[in-house]
Amino acid sequence: MASPPRRPIKRRTNAPRDVVADRAIVAKRVDRHQAGLFDEPLPKWIRPCLPTLVEKPPAGPQWVHEIKWDGYRVSAYVAGGHTTIRTRNGHDWTTRFPTIAAAAARLKVRSAVIDGEAVILDDRGRSSFAELQTDLDRHGSGRAVLYAFDLLFLDGEPLWKKPLEERRLALGGIIPKRSAILLSEDFAGSGADLFKIACENELEGIVSKRLDRGYHPGRSRDWLKTKCIQSDTFVIIGFQPGSGAVRAPLANIKIARSDGARLRYAGAVGTGFSERVAAALRERFDRIQTERCPVAGLKVSGAVWVSPDLRALVAYRGITTAGELRHASFKGLEE
């Protein structure tokens, strides 16, 4: 989908006294000697807007819908050709996302704050949190790209009070066609239809946003998320080594849920990790092997037990009567 044209978004004539009426917030031709003369300073950090979980997508023309990417929420702060990448809690992770930082620094802007999700895409174009986490455990990800979905500041102008529709128009105007920064496309049609497509393609879900609202830090009902699958955190208690002609590092991971002071077996997770991720997990598991199963009385043929020191985020479709997860998929380690 082509990016929208870069057009100026003008302020209302009844703007507050600290806003110049009819001044374009998207770049326009200016005297190079005056460019930036009246710019406001770049914010050090803006607490991100977080979507509220709902059971089904909202309907109505005031809503647009996007794919919910499975990665790390980050913002790019750009000024004077330099970029700082900050996490949702404000930590500086610039060195962990060097490719995104370099792409942001090349944007044709004096200053900007771009909100988005850092992801690694698999061969089907789906975001893989496990792959990203493995890269970050090794001090950085040059493969990660940023799916940008909001623009909070541009060329010395704060935009967070502007409606999303105007912020999105401005965002589409600064992102180049070939970059490690990609525009997260929005869909103005039926949220239910997009949600169905997301679930059919085994994506995490969608996020729906009010076009007519400003950006509000913290949990907000102007942004709603609908998830295709359930997810929770479980204790890793062991693993099944690979077998057969080609011995993969892992066949599956054994997990349990906490029940007070006890652990109860929750089954095995055999999907969601590539061979590369599996090898990194196996390295960690080998360091914490133990002879005794952490779940009292549990016996699983061929299983290797580990100390219950690690926790895994697991997505699943349901729970059997025996308490084991159905269609479980590994999403990453809880750090």
Unreliable runs, pLDDT <50, ≥5 residues?
1-29
Q: What is the mean predicted local confidence, pLDDT? A: 87
CATH class of the largest domain: Alpha Beta
Level of helix content?
10-25%
- How does the overall form come out from the CA principal axes? globular
Tally of distinct domains: 2
Order of helices and strands: EEEEHEHEEHEHEEEEEHEEEEE
CATH architecture of the largest domain: 2-Layer Sandwich
In the CATH hierarchy, what is the superfamily of the largest domain?
Answer: DNA ligase/mRNA capping enzyme
Assign the structural class, choosing from mainly alpha, mainly beta, alpha/beta, alpha+beta, or little secondary structure: alpha+beta
What is the CATH topology descriptor of the largest domain? D-amino Acid Aminotransferase, Chain A, domain 1
Largest sheet: 6 strands, mixed
> For the terminal residues, how far apart are their CA atoms?
36 Å
**Total beta-strand segments:** 18
User: What is the beta-strand fraction?
Assistant: 25-35%
Number of helices: 5
Radius of gyration: 23 Å
Characteristics:
D-amino Acid Aminotransferase, Chain A, domain 1, OB fold (Dihydrolipoamide Acetyltransferase, E2P), single chain, alpha+beta, six-stranded antiparallel sheet, about 325 residues, about 15% helix, disordered N terminus
